Amino acid sequence: MKKIALILTVMSVICMTINAQERVGRIVIKPSKGLTISDISGWKYSSHTKSKTGYTEGVEAEFIVKPWLGLSVGAAYTQMGSKLYIRERFVKSIEHSEYMDEINPAFYEKAANSFRTLDGPVNNDYLTVPVLANIHIFKGFAISTGLQAGFLLSSKIKPTYEYDQLAETIMEEIMMPNITYHAEIDRKNFCKNFDMGIPFGISYEYRNVTLDARYYFGLMHTMKKSCDGLNRCLSITLGYKFNVR
């Protein structure tokens, strides 16, 4: 919350020093697409996560109400989530082998520690609807903030079970096939279908081409039962403004 208060203070100071450039009554439509870098903050697995990259594509409409202020609403398909790394022993493949008695116990203990489970990306896909106030600081540059709603379209995790080189050697010695297992797990039923948060952005426009960087602070927990996990997402998009009026 301190970060949000600081950003709002900075934006207020900027508002008092802006050099108005926009034509009142102008309406523009801006389709855009780009990439996202997201993570899930405050999740019980947060210590085992890293940010993941994704994709976003959508459209926004802006109406200029004052020379320095525009109001916009949009809709976009936005990929969020996180990369989940939970490494734990994965030794079932040799524990139940008929060749188990032929393995030296000390060597087996060492081998057991080489088998791991590597969980993959948590893919949360949303239909996001931002409603923003865009403050046009001076020609071409603008900052924005407001509220953003998110409607969950899907939530899936695709873990990959792997093992390291030592385990691979053991597998060959006991004549078992290599194991690399991919599976996709649908977890939408465990997630809330609605999300709400605050986006902060800065953009630059040149000849109707816009480059926009926006950071999203989710305010609602993403999980139904555990009541944890907040979306965090940086999006960088390239768009083009079409004048409607």
Helix content: 10-25%
Largest sheet: 8 strands, antiparallel, barrel
Number of strands: 14
What is the global morphology? elongated
At CATH level 3, the topology is Porin
* SS element count, helices: 4
Number of domains: 1
User: SSE string, helix = H, strand = E?
Assistant: HEEEEHHEEEEHEEEEEE
Evaluate the radius of gyration: 24 Å
Q: Span from first to last CA?
A: 38 Å
Overall mean pLDDT stands at: 78
- Which residue ranges are poorly predicted, with pLDDT under 50 across at least 5 consecutive positions? 88-100, 170-179
Q: What is the SS-derived class?
A: mainly beta
Strand order of the largest sheet: 1-3-4-6-7-11-12-13
* Main CATH class: Mainly Beta
Q: What portion of the residues fall into strands of 2 or more residues? A: over 45%
CATH architecture label name: Beta Barrel
Explain this structure:
Helices cover 14% and strands 53% of the residues. It is mostly beta strands and 245 residues long. It has one domain: Porin, CATH 2.40.160.20. The strands form 2 sheets. The protein has an 8-stranded antiparallel β-barrel. A 3-stranded antiparallel sheet has the order 5-8-9. Strand 3 (52-66) and strand 4 (69-84) form a beta hairpin. It is elongated and about 50 Å long.
Can you tag this structure with a few keywords?
245 residues, single chain, 53% strand, 3-stranded antiparallel beta sheet, mainly beta, 8-stranded antiparallel beta barrel, Porin, 14% helix
Please specify the SSE layout and strand pairing.
Layout lengths: L1 H14 L11 E15 L7 E2 L1 E15 L2 E16 L7 H4 L9 H8 L2 E4 L2 E18 L2 E17 L2 E4 L1 H9 L7 E2 L2 E2 L7 E13 L2 E10 L11 E11 L1 E2 L2
Antiparallel strand pairs: 1-3, 1-13, 1-14, 2-4, 3-4, 4-6, 5-8, 6-7, 7-10, 7-11, 8-9, 11-12, 12-13
